[in-house]
Amino acid sequence: MAQLEETRSRFLALYDILKHELMHDADIKFTEEMRLRVEEILDYNVPRGKLNRGLAVIETYKALKGDELSEEEFFLASVLGWCLEWLQACLLVLDDIMDNSQTRRGCICWYRRPKVGLNAINHGILLKTHTHRIFRRYFREKPYYLELTELCDEVGYQTSLGQMLDLVITHEGKNDLSKYTMQAYRRIVIYKTSYYSFYLPVACALLLSGEELENYNGIKEILIEMGVYFQVQDDYLDCFGDPEVAGKIGTDIEDYKCSWLIIQALKLADDDKKQILYENYGKSDPISVKKVKSLYQELDIQGIFSKYEAESYEKLLSAIEARSSSVMREILKALLEKIYQRKK
């Protein structure tokens, strides 16, 4: 535990260095007003999360190397980890606008802050372009630079497609809830969550270690399934989690989201219960939301989730144990243990 805290502390210390470099970029003629605005955008959106993706790059790289990282190795892994946190910040800023979210990480969403509004779209784009500048500064001379940039661009593209699918399916669901199926759900989640939250950090560490990604397709499949399990947890916490712990107020019911919970409810509900869902799902008034949540409880969605979580954990653990590399087994197990039965 102490070692993890030390890693986190060292990782956080690098944030201010990267921020300073971006705000004093010699290629840009910054005014003081521009610098202050960029600093506000960064400080509010980049370092305030759990930092799981960034730290996963460091921990995975350390495991692959088999011993303590040198100062330079730790620094480069941390830089790469922060690029993933910058990407995460970009995606969350834009996602909150599209989802009309209220809170994020225990605070009001960035776009809802005074004098921000839809300017947040520009800020999200700015955050994404920062990752390219950081990459170029620190990795341009590395042999894996092209693979690294192509990997991050590909995952960014996949995540954008996942968000588009989410919006398209939500639009269709408003007219017909039967469009919400597990097949549609998995397609959304794999593209929107799995690739960037689970595969990307591990793939980045593999490239840093000089590995060929094509040799790790089996690992990729496990990480994708881990991402699906993670998103199902997210859907559950959106409805039944404690907002004080989760750091955000769930709005999946109000937003007509293609959520794992509504899919389970539709499978279990008789015609009368389905009618309640059709009449109340996607409405923002508290009475409708309460009716949907009450129906979830009546159908024992919480019990079904508990069973799903236990089964998913065992299935993932079995797939991990089947891997021939003991190092990769430990890396994957550590990632799974970090999210198993999480509350936020």
UniProtKB/TrEMBL annotation:
InterPro entries, sorted: FPS1-like (IPR039702), Isoprenoid_synthase_dom_sf (IPR008949), Polyprenyl_synt (IPR000092), Polyprenyl_synt_CS (IPR033749)
Organism: Rhynchospora pubera
Keyword set, alphabetical order: Isoprene biosynthesis, Magnesium, Metal-binding, Transferase
GO biological process, one term: farnesyl diphosphate biosynthetic process
Entry-linked Gene3D superfamilies: Farnesyl Diphosphate Synthase
Keyword Transferase part of the UniProt annotation: yes
Cofactor(s) annotated in UniProt: Mg(2+)
The name this protein goes by in its record: Farnesyl pyrophosphate synthase
GO CC aspect terms: cytoplasm
GO terms, molecular function: (2E,6E)-farnesyl diphosphate synthase activity; dimethylallyltranstransferase activity; metal ion binding
Keyword Kinase tagged: no
Database matches in CDD domains: Trans_IPPS_HT (cd00685)
Family: Belongs to the FPP/GGPP synthase family.
